[in-house]
From TrEMBL:
InterPro entries given in the database record: CheY-like_superfamily, OmpR/PhoB-type_DNA-bd, Sig_transdc_resp-reg_C-effctor, Sig_transdc_resp-reg_receiver, WalR-like, WH-like_DNA-bd_sf
One annotated GO molecular function: phosphorelay response regulator activity
Gene Ontology CC: one annotated term: cytosol
DNA-binding stretch(es), residue numbering of this chain: 127-226
SMART domains reported for this sequence: REC, Trans_reg_C
Keywords: DNA-binding, Phosphoprotein
GO BP: any one term: regulation of DNA-templated transcription
Record's protein name: Transcriptional regulator
PANTHER family in UniProt: REGULATOR OF RPOS, TRANSCRIPTIONAL REGULATORY PROTEIN CREB
Domain Response regulatory: from-to ranges: 3-116
Residues the record lists as 4-aspartylphosphate modifications: 52
Pfam families: Response_reg, Trans_reg_C
CDD domains: REC_OmpR, trans_reg_C
Amino acid sequence: MATILIIEDEAAIADAVLYALRAEGHVAEHCLLGREGLARLRAGDIDLAILDVGLPDMTGFDLCRSIREFSALPVIFLTARGSEIDKVLGLELGADDYMVKPFSPRELVARVRARLRRVSAPGGDAGRWREIGAFAHDVAGQRIRFAGQELALTRYEYLLLAALLARPGAILSRERLMSDVWQDAPDTVDRTVDTHIKTLRGKLRAADASRDPIQTHRSLGYSLKA
């Protein structure tokens, strides 16, 4: 079972897609506007997105471009725009598939199934990444992406960021972070946490200067806004 987001402004089409996906056993959600859908995708826990091109507030092409700045989840276009140039543009922007209306709900479900199977295949790179807002975490490979870019982290930078990612929004004290991250270095001082937070912030800014996801809570500790 997967969680699938449909971003579509035509209610009849959205209802047909929602019904077909739920009949297959998936959790299906619907957003009417592109910006609403983008916010939902940034919140994480979506396995696949189905996009219309002609949305009221932005084009599906612009939406796909924005999604690819922070996520590698499968994207399928479902649109009335069936020209060759539109199909090529959609795929070049990072979509995984492109279907033209009118469409067969059974065929759409089959394509969704194929994309999800490819992502979750053993050894498939995308299947190892868990998305958490603007972050993606490959626990087995000890890798973290932010805003679509893989971060070059030292061992302790990775462990520190992973500890924050494990509880997004929660305030973790320096003592808690010391205990979780520096288990094999008991003589490490509290300022080590601050130093590593500073270097982490620098690497996150290099990936996306518009965001500062690590929040400082004076006398309390740090939290992560994913």
